[in-house]
């Protein structure tokens, strides 16, 4: 990811709705995992699918849960992390057209 994109994301998290979007993403990931789990369980009970056929959706459920946990942990770390960012430099680099090396 280019440095400019990272800086823009930080600004969105600080001022914009980036944090709210991240919280919504965790809800969507959780709901998707639950819905997929219920769907696989229901189809499995109704049609008696084989274990191997349930394995692929189970991998997808695991991935959704892992992504949700990753986003959630980043949201919880953001207040501490953001205290150590030199916001003046971030804004200067974005205004100048890109980050400068130190």
List the helices and strands and how they pair.
Layout: H1 3-14, H2 18-47, H3 51-83, H4 87-96
Helix pairs in contact: 1-4, 2-3
Describe the structure.
This protein has 102 residues and is mostly helical. The longest helix is centred in the middle third of the chain and has 33 residues, at 51-83. It has a domain at 19-85. The protein is built from four helices and no strands.
Q: What is the global morphology?
A: elongated
Spell out the helices and strands N to C: HHHH
Distance between the termini: 19 Å
Helix percentage range: over 70%
State the helix count: 4
Supply Rg. Answer: 20 Å
Question: Taking all residues together, what is the mean pLDDT?
Answer: 87
Which structural class do the helices and strands define? Answer: mainly alpha
The total count of strands amounts to: 0
Biggest sheet features: none
Report low-confidence residues grouped into runs of 5 or more.
none
Strand coverage percent: under 5%
Structure summary:
The protein is mainly α.
Short descriptors:
4 helices, 102 residues, mainly alpha, 83% helix
């Amino acid at each position: 990811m280019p440095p400019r994109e990272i800086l823009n994301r930080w600004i969105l998290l600080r001022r914009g709705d980036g944090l709210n979007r991240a919280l919504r993403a965790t809800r969507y990931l959780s709901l998707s995992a639950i819905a997929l789990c219920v769907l696989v369980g229901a189809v499995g009970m109704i049609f008696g699918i084989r274990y191997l056929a349930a394995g692929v959706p189970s991998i997808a459920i695991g991935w959704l849960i892992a992504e949700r946990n990753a986003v959630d942990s980043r949201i919880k770390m953001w207040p501490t992390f953001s205290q150590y960012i030199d916001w003046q430099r971030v804004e200067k680099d974005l205004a100048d057209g890109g980050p400068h090396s130190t």
